[in-house]
Amino acid sequence: MPADERTIEEKLNELRELREKACLGGGSGRIEAQHRRGKLTARERLEILLDEGSFEEFDMFVSHRCVDFGLSEQEYLSDGVVTGFGTIDGRLVFVFSQDFTVFGGSLSEMYAAKICKIMDKAMAVGAPIIGINDSGGARIQEGVVSLGGYAEIFKRNIAASGVVPQISVVFGPCAGGAVYSPALTDFIIMSKETSYMFVTGPKVVKTVTNEVVSVEDLGGADVHAVRSGVNHLVAEDEQEGLLMVRKLFSYLPQNNLEDPPARRCDDPADRIEEDLDYLVPVNPNRPYNMKDVIFLITDNHEFLELQAQFAPNIVTGFATFEGRPVGIVANQPNYLAGVLDINAARKAARFVRCCDAFNVPVVTLVDVPGFLPGTAQEYGGIILHGAKLLFAYGEATVPKVTVILRKAYGGAYDVMGSKHLRGDINYAWPTAEIAVMGPRGAVEVLHARELEGMLDETQRKAFIDEKENAYRQRFASPYVAARYGYLDDVITPHNTRFRIIKALRMLATKKDVNPAKKHANIPL
Question: What is the residue range of 84's domain?
Fold first, then answer.
């Protein structure tokens, strides 16, 4: 064989060997340790997340530049993070997957540069960014350089916000400054038992506050799903979590200049659901499950709920009508009567703004008795947090369809996608009650003097019942709001799906703009 051919063969072998070395990450021993913890490797995760054979890797041969603390003798190709692009259901996405087998996934200068490169590419071509987090934090040996790397990533998260969808997956530790990149993204998915997020760990908490807390209780998936609201979806394991990403991605566009992808739908638009006519109890104080309504009206009875365990008095998530994605916001009467509180307002406001950023129409299902009273809510800033929800609806320019099923009292009526906050199509069921307050409360205020003079309890009850019914007919009836044009129609419950679909069809070409400004000053 000629010498030049031998040289080519040697170079090809060298390339093959280097690729194999890079794919091993921190080595077979550390890969086995990762598997023993119930965790996949960085590349195994991408194989599940992306369409088969679609991944194109960037910067496989990058390594760190630090020579201090013995790092000059430890070199791993890829330097602890796998980056590149691929497809999900044929749609382009940019990805990074942190590799815990290399220095515990700790972030270095070059590691950060790799992530920043794919984020810049994603912005340039208008494609989503999906990050899989499994890192021990900043690489201590590199000092401020690694901290600067985090800040460079944060800067790009901020620039990409509202431009391309950003999804964070946490499948291991995510602590200290590292938590702020996922927090700046649109959605966070965690897995049970193997993932956690916190700003300061249990040891620091013990030192500073003398609290003794486990890693799981401080920042586990369930804590952030139930208590903090940081987490949007909880997976039983990593494979389920990656499939959740694919499902979530199916409701989102490539960027803010495109519409979400439509899908084929065989579910008839004019499907009648007789059960809806009897779903709302005759007694206005009796609860029911709003999710029953959602599943009855959406395509194929499907609904992807987000933050299901956080502020369950309001329901948020994605569904489709005629194959086109929508965001659903709905009060939940079977938890705290569907009342709005601080957490519910935060949860719904963030979701509405996300839908508006990415051209996803918002369908609102209303049954709300008002805002939760009490000193805890007032001291906690319910005024500001409630204003966030009001702001989100008023600012949103996407198609907005609202259906009032039962109660819509006080300021909560305004806040929940009312006509006055640029609601496009507003319907009500015949069971709807729209008023400043509930009929009983109104009677007790309006007829306080008469009630004071009534000592006979039977007479008092009869008087209240009579006045309550009169108030309900005179002020709380949906036809009163319809008379003013605040409702576009009072509809039969069993026909709700078709009426929503017809409204969305009509609004498909809607154009609405906000006044020119640098940015709004939302009450944070």
Answer: 3-249
